[in-house]
Design brief:
329 residues; alpha/beta; TIM Barrel; two-stranded antiparallel ribbon; binds ligand PBG; porphyrin biosynthesis; porphobilinogen synthase activity; heme biosynthesis
C-alpha cells in the first residue's frame, strides 16, 4: 500500500485546516509604532511608507483610541524632532516638556490602559543622525549610555510603561535599570532591542524622522560600529543573554523577515518574551510590490506576520498592525 500516510487528508477543507493549525495571529500580538510631529491637525504621509503618517498630538490621541477599540493594546512612540533642537548630545531628549514626553502623556490620557512604549536612542535628536554622542569619528559608548539612561527616566516620569532602547550601546540596559530602580520606577519595563542588525531596511524610517547619519567629515556614514553584522547568528544570543542579565524584561530581534532564524535561536535560548520588529523597509517592499499589482497585499501581510509568530515571536511591532487586525477580525 502506498502512500502509507496521506497528509493531504488534514488539508481537505478549511474546517479541518483550522483544527490542525498550529498558531494564529491575534490582536494581542501587536505593537503599533506611531510617529509624532509638532503642530495641530497634522497628518503627514511618509514618502517611502505609503499610507503611514506622522501625527500631531491631537491626531495621536484619536489614533490611540482607535487602535484600542480595534483591540491593539500597545503602541511604540517615535518623534520627529525639529532641526533647530538637534545637537550632538541630544539635549532635547531630556526635556521634560519635549515632544516625546508630551506624546506619552497624550497617549496615556487618551487610553490609560494602553501600554505605552517609547524608543530610546539619540538619533532623532542627534545633529549627526547617530544613536549616541559622536567624537572624533566615533560613537562614544559610556557617555551615550549615561544619557540614554536619563532619557529613559524622563520617559518613565512622563508615564511610559515600557522603555525600548534601540541604540545598541554596551551596558545601557544595566545603566537604565539601575537608574530606574534608584528613582523609584520599579514598575517601568525595558524591552531591549538586543539583536538589532545594521540593516539597509531602516531607510524609510530614517526618512520618516529625518534621522539618517549626516554626510559630513568625521561622521560615520553607517551604524556598523554599534549595530550587529547581518552575518552573525551566535552573537545575537550573546547580546540578548547579556541584556537579560542587565535587566531587560523583553528582548527583540530587528528586522523581522530576514532574521527569523535568529528569532528561533532566541526563542530556544532565553526564557523571557522575544519581540520582533518588522521594520520600515519590510513595509515599503510590500507596499511597492502591491502598488504595482505584483503581490496580493493582504495575503502577503498576513503570511509574513504569521511566519514571524511561527518563528517564535511573542509580540510583533509592525506598521501593518492595524491592517492585520482588521483583516483577522
Ligand atoms: C533608532 C531606530 C531605528 C529604527 C527604530 N529605532 C533606526 C535606526 O536604527 O537607524 C528603525 C525602525 C524601522 O526601520 O522601522 N535607533
Amino acid at each position: 500500500m502506498y502512500p502509507l500516510r496521506r497528509n493531504r487528508r488534514l488539508r481537505t477543507n478549511e474546517a479541518i485546516r483550522s483544527l490542525v493549525r498550529e498558531i494564529a495571529i491575534t490582536p494581542n500580538d501587536f505593537i503599533a509604532p506611531l510617529f509624532v510631529v509638532e503642530g495641530k491637525n497634522k497628518k503627514e504621509e511618509i514618502a517611502s511608507m505609503p499610507n503611514y503618517f506622522r501625527l500631531s498630538l491631537d491626531l495621536l490621541e484619536k489614533e490611540v483610541k482607535e487602535l484600542w477599540n480595534l483591540g491593539i493594546k500597545s503602541v511604540l512612540l517615535f518623534v520627529k524632532v525639529p532641526e533647530d533642537l538637534k545637537d550632538n548630545a541630544g539635549k532635547e531628549a531630556l526635556n521634560a516638556n519635549g515632544l516625546m514626553q508630551r506624546a506619552i502623556k497624550t497617549a496615556k490620557n487618551a487610553v490609560p490602559e494602553m501600554l505605552v512604549m517609547t524608543d530610546v536612542a539619540l538619533d532623532p535628536y542627534s545633529a549627526y543622525g547617530h544613536d549616541g554622542v559622536v567624537s572624533n569619528g566615533k560613537i562614544l559608548n559610556d557617555d551615550s549610555s549615561a544619557i540614554l539612561a536619563e532619557m529613559g527616566l524622563s520617559h518613565a516620569k512622563a508615564g511610559a510603561d515600557i522603555l525600548a532602547p534601540s541604540d545598541m550601546m554596551d551596558g545601557r540596559i544595566f545603566e537604565m535599570r539601575t537608574l530606574l530602580e534608584d528613582e523609584g520606577f520599579q514598575e517601568t519595563g525595558i524591552m531591549s532591542y538586543s539583536a538589532k542588525y545594521a540593516s539597509a531596511f531602516y531607510g524609510p524610517f530614517r526618512d520618516a524622522l529625518d534621522s539618517a547619519p549626516v554626510d559630513a567629515e568625521d561622521i560615520p556614514k553607517d551604524k556598523k560600529t554599534y549595530q550587529m553584522d547581518p552575518a552573525n547568528r551566535d552573537e545575537a544570543v550573546k547580546e540578548s543573554l547579556m541584556d537579560i542579565e542587565e535587566g531587560a524584561d523583553i528582548v527583540m530581534v530587528k528586522p523581522g523577515l530576514c532574521y527569523l532564524d535568529i528569532v528561533r535561536d532566541l526563542k530556544n535560548a532565553v526564557n523571557i518574551p522575544v519581540a520582533v520588529y518588522q521594520v520600515s523597509g519590510e513595509y515599503a517592499m510590500i507596499k511597492a510590490a502591491a502598488e504595482k499589482g505584483w503581490l496580493d497585499h493582504d495575503a502577503v501581510v498576513l503570511e509574513q506576520l504569521t511566519a514571524i509568530k511561527r518563528a517564535g515571536a511573542s509580540m510583533i511591532a509592525s506598521y501593518f498592525a492595524k491592517d492585520a487586525v482588521k483583516l483577522i477580525s
